[in-house]
Amino acid sequence: MTAAPPLWRLDRRPLGYRAAWDFQRDLVERRQRDEIPDVLLLTEHPPVYTLGKSAHRENLLESPEALAGRGAEVIETDRGGDVTFHGPGQLVAYPIVHLGGWRKDVHAYLRALEAAAIDTAAGFGTAATRREGLTGVWCCAGGAPRKLASIGVRVSRWVASHGLAFNVTTELDWFAHIVACGIRNAAATSLAAETGRAVPLDAVADRLADAFAEVLGRRLVAAPDDLPIVRANAGS
Length: 236
Hints:
By secondary structure, this protein is α/β, with parallel strands linked by helices. The chain has a single domain, classed as BirA Bifunctional Protein, domain 2. It has helices at about 15-30, 65-70, 105-120, 190-195, 200-215, and strands at about 5-10, 40-45, 50, 75, 85, 90-100, 130, 135-140, 145-155, 160-165, 185-190, 220. Strands 1, 2, 6, 7, 8, 9, 10, 11 and 12 form a nine-stranded mixed β-sheet that branches. The longest helix has 17 residues, at about 105-120. It is globular. Mean pLDDT is about 95; it is low at about 230-235.
């Protein structure tokens, strides 16, 4: 029986958003050249609001200067989607996956990311689900839908980057300053808010990595210790 293709797990926490973006671009280039297998980069960012390629500026409810005064950067990025927030207590997963070796179907890949997040939430006693016509993962029990995980990707020469942001113990007040993902009247939530307890980020990272490897049919292995960040300093 043929072994499943490897998926390198790479934990770099915390990591500045620009450094993580540069690191992804370097990994994408290496993956396009088949120098490395698929990679799952797991990280946590300092406070930052990011705008995807289809973002509407009006969904940023305060100026970048005002948000900087609150301690958050504002960065325009090359992923799909609208405006979202990353910050402490949020697990961010950046899979660098060659869809040519899986399925050349971006929509199927988005559904795979959602499936991994749903499985992860279930592992901590939280029922999460999809919503028709919307990308991401939601908690709907006991009231209005609340967004638990946001998804936005980029695909270049069939190699996917960016990915999924999963709220674990995230301070949800940060979301009050944006129309997250361009969806009005949609509250954010976290595992801590849903379960009433502080869930360790490390435990969520382990569960998400396992779930993502399973849904893609990959064999999870540790990335080499000497895999450098070529383009940027890890602390930026």
